[in-house]
Every structure is written in C-alpha cells, then in structure tokens.
Design a protein that fits this description.
Layout: E1 10-14, H1 32-35, E2 42-46, H2 48-51, E3 61-64, E4 67-70, H3 77-94, E5 98-101, E6 112-114, E7 122-124, H4 128-135, E8 139-142, H5 143-148
Parallel strand pairs: 1-2, 1-5, 5-8
Antiparallel strand pairs: 3-4, 6-7
Helix pairs in contact: 3-4
The structure holds iron/sulfur cluster (SF4).
Residues 14-16, 22-23, 47-49, 102, 105, 107-108 line the site of iron/sulfur cluster.
Length: 149
C-alpha cells in the first residue's frame, strides 16, 4: 500500500489555501485555483504553525533575521522550526516533490515576507517552512505563482 493511492503526483498545500481556518486570526485563505489542483494532483494539506504547536488564533509573527518573533518581541523560532521539520517529514512520507504555499507568511512565504518591523513592509525572503522544503529538494511556489501561470 502506498501513501498516495491515486495515480496523481502529490503536492503539499498550505491548509489555509484549502479553506482550513488555521491562520493566526482563525480564518482561512481559500483559493479556488488551488482547490482546482485536486483534479490533477493528490493534495496533502499542512499548516506548519499548527504542526509546530502554536494555537489558533495566535499572535502575528514575522521573521527577523534568523529568528521569528511576535510583535511584543516574544521569540517563537522553535515552534516555526518544529513546524518546518514536520512539513519536510510529511513531504518525504507522502512522496511530495512540490508544494503550493501561502504567499508572504513567515512559515509558508516563498519569495517575499514581512521584514520583522510589523509595519506591513515586505522584502525579498522566504518563510521558515518554504526554506526547509526547498533545502529538502521540494519545489515550492505560491498561490500567486499559480494564478500567474
Ligand atoms: S502557517 Fe502556512 S498553512 Fe498555516 S495558516 Fe500560515 S500560511 Fe496558512
């Protein structure tokens, strides 16, 4: 028995893009274009922040250098790293070679993220999970890349 019983290739997907109410405000970011991938892919939802042990809702966080912090300065790096490791293990367990992750998240962002000043300022960079998945050989794109394609 294999992890993917369908003939479709497996993709990890940020759970919030599939309608799971797991973001820091307890909401979701459902995208029809992401849900439609189910026609051709075996979709495996994952929320790295929840997998890392954080509650929902939770404080907003941003990457600041090699750390992840809440607006009040609380260092939550360990939870973000646990979640990233869980996502890598899930990719390996399911044979996922690609991932479609939520743009601009400190976990899932894949090309730009907020800069750690909590002023809604974006800069080039990736979330902790996106980076870990790429280091493990998984191709990562965002829902914005999907629309562009
Ligand atoms: S960690 Fe990723 S999957 Fe979870 S709510 Fe944030 S963007 Fe969505």
């Amino acid at each position: 028995m294999t992890a993917n019983s369908s003939q479709h290739p497996t993709l990890l997907v940020s759970a919030c893009l599939l309608g799971v109410e797991c973001n820091h405000e307890g909401g979701h970011s459902r995208r029809r274009s992401v849900e439609a991938l189910a026609e051709n892919y075996h979709l495996v939802p994952v929320c790295p922040e929840v997998c890392g042990g954080l509650s929902t809702p939770r404080a907003a966080a941003e990457r600041r250098g090699d750390r992840v912090v809440n607006a009040d300065g609380t260092d939550v790096t360990a939870a973000y790293e646990r979640g990233a490791q869980a996502a890598v293990e899930l990719a390996q367990a399911t044979g996922a070679r690609g991932a479609v992750l939520k743009a601009r998240s400190p976990s899932c962002g894949s090309s730009e993220i907020y800069d750690g000043t909590f002023s809604r300022t974006l800069h080039d960079g990736e979330g902790v999970t996106a980076a870990a998945l790429r280091a493990a050989g998984v191709e990562v794109i965002s829902e914005d890349d999907l629309r562009a394609g």
